[in-house]
Structures are given as C-alpha cells and as structure tokens.
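Hi F.,

I've been meaning to write this up properly since the lab meeting, where we talked about keeping a consistent format for the predictions we share between groups. The idea is simple: the sequence comes first, exactly as it goes in, then the structure tokens exactly as they come out, then a line or two of notes. No screenshots and no reformatting. I'm using this chain as the first example so we have something concrete to point to.
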Amino acid sequence: MGVVLLVRHGQASWGAADYDVLSPLGEEQAGILGAALAGRGITPDVVVHGALLRQRRTAEIAAAAAGWDCPVVVDADWDELDHVELMAVLPPDADADDPDRRFTAAVERWLTGRHEADYRESFEAFGVRVQTALDAVTDQVRESGLAVVVTSGGPIAWSSSRLVEGDAATYRQLARVVVNTSVTTVVASARGTTLVSFNEHLHVAGDRITQR
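Output, unedited:
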C-alpha cells in the first residue's frame, strides 16, 4: 500500500502585484508543516511539487524543516488553475469592486462549461490534467511508498471530489475550504486509490489558519 499526502502551499500574496509569492506567514506555515510531519515520523520517498513558485517554496521550506533528503520532482500538472485568466474574461461589471466576489463569480462561470472557448484550459481539461498527475504519483508509490505532493487548492479539491465520485458541485464546495498547508491523505493499493482524509490542519494554530 502506498500513501500520497496532498499539501496545499502556504499563504500566497493575494491582492499583490504577484500572487505567486509566499507571504511571510506562508513561509512560517511551510516551516511548521515540515516540522509537524517530521514529528509524526513521516519520511517521504519523493517530494513532488508543481511548477509555480509558491508550490516550490513551500516544498523547499517544509523539506528543510523536516530534514528530508529525498528526490524532488517538478510536475506542472499539479499547477493551479489560472485565476488571472478566469477573472480577466469575466464581464467587467461583475462584482468589479470586490476581488473575492469577482473571483467566486469567475470560477462559477468556468465551472458551468458553457464558455469553454474563452479559456485556454476548461474545467474538464483541468480535471484531465490533475488526474494525469494523480495517476503518475499513485502509480509510483502504490506498492509501499510515500509521496508528499505540494500543490494548490484546486488540484486538491478536484482529486478529492473525484475520489468520492463527486461532480463540479462537490469540487466547488471542497475548493472553498482548503486551508494553506493542509494535508489531504490518499491511499493507493492494488484495489485502487482511496481518499482517507481531507484538509487536515491541526498543525496550524487558529490565528495562522488562512485560505489564500
């Protein structure tokens, strides 16, 4: 039996010119995560992260805090959806004065599947990409390995909803609640791939819980 821990990156820089940078709190969260996983005796055979800076830095900081010395693999299939593109194609008058509401409206439009021509990557294509990434890592550890995958809320929500046979509505609900540096556990065996826990974040104190 193999285990895959899906980790959301630390807090990024929502509202800044470049979102794809960990905030100081995000870096702190990543260090706490690594120490917490090491304290539980978790020693991965491989660390995988997406190509985005916030994913890479979270993996680097967590691995250093945990003292891990294992192969590190970059797999861009674990990248997040392009929220900038989603918001750019939204009608200009849609919640224009509230970035959070505008982002929510943009994701809702994307999820419907009725405007696929407006996006470089539709929701369906996003799902295919993430499934490819999930299949690759579960195949790698299925016999007896353990992988830590540092990704984003979207891929974690999609993987989790897929594993419980959910749909776009399930994805929507899960994506809203994924906490920064939370851990979602997936077990892979000859019988298949199973979600056994979602969004664990007990290592993060109450005043350090964020969702950006």
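Notes:
The first helix runs from residue 24 to 39.
Helices lie at 24-39, 53-66, 83-88, 99-112, 123-141, 153-163, 168-175.

If this format works for you, I'll send the rest the same way.

G.
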